[in-house]
Each structure stands twice: as C-alpha cells, then as structure tokens.
Design a protein that fits this description.
Helices cover about 65% and strands about 0% of the residues. With about 270 residues, it is an all-alpha fold. The longest helix is centred in the last third of the chain and has 23 residues.
C-alpha cells in the first residue's frame, strides 16, 4: 500500500512540476535579490518551485540505492531550500549550478542515515568509502585513478581495490552530465519522462562547471593556484615532494598550503563541507 501511495505521490509531483515555467536568468536574479534584500518569502518560494525539476533529475541518479524516489526528492528539496538562503546572484552563475552541491549533499546524508534499510550488504569499509566520496579528490581517484593509490591507502587498501569499491557507488542509474552519440542522456530517461526544464538544467550544470572552476582558481594567490593545478589538474599529479623542491619549502608546508587553497575554493563556490 505504501509503495502505491509513493508512486501516486510521485506522479502527482511530476504532473505539478511540469506546469511550472523555468525562470530566465534575469527573473531569477530579480527574485534572489528580493529575497536577500527584503526577505520576500514569495520570491524564495518561486525560486524553489522553479528549480524542483532539477532536484528530481539529481534524485533519479540515486535510485539504485533502493530508497523511494519521492523521499530522495524531498531530501534534495531541503538542500535546494538551504541553497536559496545562501545564493548570491551577483557571483555570475545560475541558482541550479550552485544548488547542485547542496542538493547532492542532502541526498547523500539521507542515504547514509538510511543505510540500515538499504539492502546492499554493505560493510564498514564501504560506508567509509561512500562517505569519503564527498571529497573531490576521492571521487577523481575513483573515476580516473589519479592518486588512487594514496586515497586507497587512507582506507587500508590499494588503489585498484579502492577504485572497484568506489566505482560501484558512482555507477548511478543515469548521469545527466554525459552525452551519448551527441544526445544528452536526460533525453532518453524512461518512466517519468524528462521535461524541457530538466534538459535545460542538465545543460546549465555542464556548461557552468568550467566557469566555476575558473572562478575558484582565480580566488587563489598565484602560488596557491599553482599548487592546485599541479596537484589536482595535472596528469600525472605532481607529488608533494616534487612541489616542495620546486617551491623551496618543506613537504608539510606544501600540504598546509594545499589544504588552505582547497578550503578557499570551497568557500568561493559555497560548497558544503
């Protein structure tokens, strides 16, 4: 009975959401300023409602964890509401680009808290690895092997073993950021079909990733930017020892500078801890 109710609620949700028109950049900026300057609750509500299709699109990526899609959407909506409170339209990017961090973090926490009812046969190590995927460094290691050996060592396993476990968590039902033969995957979603709003949001997220990275890097000093570029954007990544020699400082000092620079980038992007 509960499953039937959830399915019905989900259908009603998609029916109502598709009646909402997407906001233009100008209208989104206007509403965001109304909320921040005048605490206009109706403006905040409009921002939340207009971006609900994006929450649903992200929630679908986590359906394979065995939780109800409507529950994932509700948790993602909480993340969206939190993002609306903090969103600064004058930074130059769209609300959904910024809110994606918060939406994913909220869903991520919900999955961890609900793990006992997810029938995946997980163990303590798998839980730790999944929790660690909130860090960009760990996700990159899982996806392309960069620093996989170092990341794996933090969990007491080798790089190959780390990639095998982490990859299972990253194999979502569908990734909206990937194109197949020139067609966005969101165009081929089964069941509750993707709306034009969802396609716009997926495209917006992809097109702004480069801009976000550029913005974050520009917030750093020249030295800090160099460290991040060498440690996280070079293939292969430069070791701490090599950077220490290059900068004529200790390895520990490079580690401190890297940690500080990553913190600055997170603050610049409004990334949740």
């Amino acid at each position: 009975m509960s499953h039937a109710l959830d399915t019905n609620s989900l259908s009603l949700f998609y029916r109502d959401v598709r009646k909402v028109d997407p906001l233009s950049r100008e209208e989104e900026t206007r509403l965001a300023r109304l909320w921040h300057k005048d605490e206009d609750r109706e403006a905040a509500r409009s921002l939340v409602v207009a971006n609900l299709p994006g929450v649903a699109a992200i929630a679908r990526e986590y359906r394979h964890f065995g939780l109800q899609e409507m529950d994932l959407i509700q948790e993602g909506t909480m993340g969206l509401m939190h993002a609306v409170k903090r969103f600064d339209p004058d930074r130059g990017f769209r609300l959904m680009t910024y809110a994606s961090w918060w939406i994913r973090a909220s869903i991520h926490d919900f999955i961890l808290h609900s793990w006992s009812i997810v029938k995946l046969g997980t163990n303590k190590l798998q839980r730790r690895i999944f929790a660690g995927l909130q860090k960009a460094r760990n996700t990159i290691a899982a996806m392309d092997g960069t620093q996989a050996q170092e990341v794996g060592a933090e969990f007491g396993i080798n790089g190959h073993e780390y990639q095998e476990v982490a990859a299972a968590f990253l194999q979502r039902d569908l990734s909206l950021d990937v194109e197949r033969e020139g067609e966005s995957v969101v165009d081929t979603l089964a069941g509750a079909s993707s709306s034009p709003e969802e396609q716009v949001i997926a495209s917006d997220w992809s097109s702004h990733q480069e801009g976000l990275l550029h913005t974050a890097l520009q917030s750093l000093s020249e030295r800090d930017r160099y460290i991040i570029m060498q440690r996280h954007l070079s293939d292969p990544a430069v070791t701490l020892k090599e950077l220490a020699k290059d900068l004529n400082v200790s390895i520990e000092r490079v580690r401190q500078l890297e940690k500080r620079a990553m913190g600055k980038m997170k603050d610049c992007l409004g990334t949740p801890e």
